[in-house]
Amino acid sequence: MRHYDRYQVGYFPPSEPCYDWVKKDHIEKAPRWCSVDLRDGNQALIVPMSLQEKVDFFKYLVKLGFKEIEVGFPAASETEYTFLRKLVDDNMVPDDVMIQVLTQSRKHIIKKTFDSLVGVKKAVVHLYNSTSVAQREQVFRKEKPEIIKIATDGAHLMNEFAEKYPDTDFTFEYSPESFTGTEVDFALEICNEVIDVWKAADPDRKIIINLPSTVEMSMPHVYASQVEFMSKNLHYREDVSLSIHPHNDRGCAVAAAELALLAGGDRIEGTLFGNGERTGNVDIVTMAMNMFSHGVVSGLNFSNMPEVVEMYEKFTDMEVPPRQPYSGKLVFAAFSGSHQDAISKGMRFHKENDLYGWSVPYLLIDPKDVGREYEADVIRINSQSGKGGVAYILEQNFGYAIPKEMREELGYMVKDVSDKAHKELSPAEVYQVFAKEYVNVFKPIDITDATFRKVSDYKSNDGYIVDMVVRIMDREYSLEGVGNGRLDAVRNALKQSPYTFDYKFITYSEHALSSESTSKAASYVCIEDAEGDQFWGVGIHEDIILASVNALVSALNRQNRRDHFVE
Questions:
Q1: Which helix (H) or strand (E) holds 340?
Q2: CA 129 to CA 151: how far, in whole Å?
Q3: Are 443 and 557 in contact (CB under 8 A)?
Q4: How far apart (Å, rounded) are the C-alpha atoms in residues 65 and 292?
Q5: Which among 436, 552, 442 is positioned nearest to 501, based on CA atoms?
Q6: CA angle at residue 132 from 126 to 135, to 5 degrees?
Q7: 504-512 sheet: strands from edge to edge
Q8: What are the CA-CA distances from residue 112 to residues 104, 394, 531 (Å)?
Q9: What is the C-alpha to C-alpha distance for residues 68 and 206, in angstroms, rounded to an integer?
Q10: What's the CA gap between 14 and 227, in Å, rounded?
Q11: Which of 284, 339, 377, 549 could join 334 in a cystine, given CB atoms 3.0 to 4.6 angstroms apart?
């Protein structure tokens, strides 16, 4: 049996304290973003993208706002070479976008890499070699000086070939691959050796030093300390862009990347939704949206997140999980009753006070900022939902302002339907439950006609007389009643029928279902019987008066289901 004690710490914290990043509580500005979806992401796919898919994905990455895009390893694959040449020959690379290519430290590979870039206005040539203890001992079986020579030989070759292509503005990048498994002092040494080679040939050369956590070995704070150590000790630091390339083996890539930015990182290499080998790369969507949620302009446009998800899934044949931060179908969904109630109240508070700043319970950002709709995405109804969520759905989708006193009964009714069906209810299904139970319930009693006249001096107040036709138990009656209000007049008229109506009014409310002149009105009536049980009814009609009559009739019919009318 294998045990946990087989696993030892395989990473190397700096020998000196590097915790200045702890003093910072937020990221103040966005880094340079480099998408590696077309290289790192593509090589992780079961079926790699076709040439056309890569072209279309490249165009979409440009649309999202990426200014640096790694397009592949042109010297190692004819497909990637062809892809790069198509981008260049068909003039698909905008002037403000810099493509990036990867190369090993071998002369023929470096030569073909530079040849592939003929005609490119500006490009990043990314040199790498493995530096970790495990790679040195197990794969290459070389000592540190030999590993350094591999890197510096490649750096010299890049200087030579860059001179042959003066029309291209080159930026050089170096990665001590498997940085997290490398002694930080050695990682610093090899990076500075490469920087010195490039600066000696061209003092104005733009340089990127990339620190990949090729395997995420440590907690995020250790990676941040490693990055800070490198940032403080790199040669020509003011001329170097310090790049980070976190992987997600421990599930902490986003956290590690954020702390690394606090520690001096200037640039991030990652993929949309974190696609990559094993558990993937850092998730750029999450990273950028995290900054957005703190008021930082990311430079990337994720305002139509459903489209981003759709395009990503189309190109990669992978799925974005429903609870993926910011982008999953359920990330804004609240099923819990208390959560739904708080969200609906918060949304109403914002609307009533016309607030610009965002602070709604349980919602980190406004779903509309990523192209999502409250009605479809925020409040979702199942057996765990509550009264506030059901009321919110009916108000947002159908215009019903459910009285507060009615919500609990309605909420339990809808939850019971969901529980027995063992499924989430759509807004239409919620409305169907509500309407069937409460709205314009006309059996066994139905007031088919009602005319009201005002009368004075009714108990020293203005009152009403109603002349109405009522059908009860399939028999029709013409009745008249007087009361201090319309519904009171209806109640007294019903007493003239051969049936017993034993109830009292508890509450009444009404509103228009829309602002249009032809819209219907909604009325809500609650009555109470002699035993103290309450019954709600809802009426709708173009005439607000008749809507209130319908609400009363609905309440009486719901009462009748239990008590039954008697002569």
A1: helix 337-353
A2: 7
A3: yes
A4: 15
A5: 552
A6: 95
A7: 504-512, 521-528, 534-541
A8: 11, 64, 91
A9: 14
A10: 9
A11: 339
Q: The tokens of 550 are what?
A: 């319908």
Taking phi over 0 as left and psi of -120 to 50 as alpha, with beta for the rest, 399 belongs to left
**Count of Cβ atoms closer than 10 Å to residue 511 Cβ:** 13
Element spanning 469, H or E: strand 461-472
Give the DSSP letter string of 168-208: SEEEEEEEEESGGGS-HHHHHHHHHHHHHHHHHH-TT--EE
d(CA 293, CA 61): 22
Extract the tokens encoding 515. 């602002």
User: What does the pLDDT profile of the chain (567 residues) look like in tens digits?
Assistant: 567 777 877 889 998 999 999 999 999 999 999 999 999 999 999 999 999 999 999 999 999 999 999 999 999 888 899 999 999 999 999 999 999 999 999 999 999 999 999 999 999 999 999 999 889 999 889 999 999 999 999 999 999 999 999 999 999 999 999 999 999 999 999 999 999 999 999 999 999 999 999 999 999 999 999 999 999 999 999 999 999 999 999 999 999 999 999 999 999 999 999 999 899 999 999 999 999 999 999 999 999 999 999 999 999 999 999 999 999 988 888 777 788 788 888 888 988 898 889 999 989 999 999 999 876 666 677 667 777 788 888 988 899 999 999 999 998 899 889 888 888 888 899 999 999 999 999 999 999 999 999 887 555 567 899 999 999 988 999 999 999 889 999 999 999 998 888 899 999 999 998 655 457 899 999 999 988 999 999 999 999 999 999 999 999 999 988 666 555
CB 65 within 8 A of CB 314: no
Q: Give φ, ψ of 101 to 5 degrees.
A: -125, 150
Nearest 10 degrees: Cα torsion 90, 96, 99, 105? 130
- Spatial separation of the C-alpha atoms in residues 48 and 39, rounded to whole Å: 10
In eight-state DSSP terms, residue 381 is B
The pTM score is: 0.80
Of 401, 12, 35, which is closest to residue 178 (Cα–Cα)? 12
In this structure, are residues 410 and 432 in contact, taking their beta carbons and an 8 Å threshold?
Answer: no
Q: Pick the closest to residue 101 from 81, 86, 121 (CA basis).
A: 81
Sequence-ordered list of residues with C-beta below 8 angstroms from that of 413, at least 6 positions apart, any chain = 433, 437
- The CA distance from 375 to 354, in Å, is 19
Q: Cβ distance 400 to 352 under 8 Å? A: no
DSSP result, 116-137: HTTT-SEEEEEEEEE-SHHIII
Chain-centre distance of CA 550, in angstroms? 43
